[in-house]
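Posting here for the record, re: calcium ion.
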Amino acid sequence: MDIKLFSMIFILCFVEISTIFVSEETFQRKFKTLKYRLDNVTLQVSNFQNYNADILNRLETCNNFVWNISQILFPTVKQCQEVSNKLIEKTDSLTQKYESLLKKYEALEKEISKLKQCSPGWLPYMNSCYILKKEAVDWFQARKWCRNNQAKLVEYSDMDEVTFVLSTAKAYHYWGTGDWAGFWVGANDQQKEGVFKWTSSNINLHWRYWLPGQPDSISVDEDCIMTLVNQQGKWNDDSCDRKLPFVCEKYM
Ligand SMILES: [Ca+2]
Ligand SMILES: [Ca+2]
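Prediction output follows.
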């Protein structure tokens, strides 16, 4: 082998060996880098696993806490619902009582309003005010007193008015038990015997509530009508000169 060939072979071998060393060095460096990254990733995975375990622990603790709270709260909530239901029932009952009282209050207010529309001592009924005068006078004096007070001797529109006036008269005066006790009303047959008329309008009676057997004009002049308090308020013709209490009526 000549020297040239030997040199070339030597150089080629050197280059190849150098290349091998260089490649191995590069490989080692890359391997280290990858190893470092792998270690890093492993560490991160480990951290994540620890973190995840911690979260699971906390979640379990939280679940236990919620369970314990629900065990405490459930009976309380049930009791609250029972109390709430009772309160609702009580409120409904109170509302009904309130509405009932409100209606009574409104009715009383109406009565008070009517009372205010009547002068002191006069009592309201429908659209009129009434007063019972206990002083016994003849029919003409009774009519005069009523007229002087912008009223008339009571004239009954119907049975309800008789009932009201009779109950008022009984409440405000002691009449005894006599069959003929009573008070004057505004009707008579002075113009024509047997034809009774309401005094204020001079119109014939539109209805009658005579005691059976009346009118009888048993005395000479029984021209004025009275109400018999002990005979359900029925009517009797009597002498206009008789002294009796009387009831006046005036419109509101
Ligand atoms: Ca008569
Ligand atoms: Ca009579």
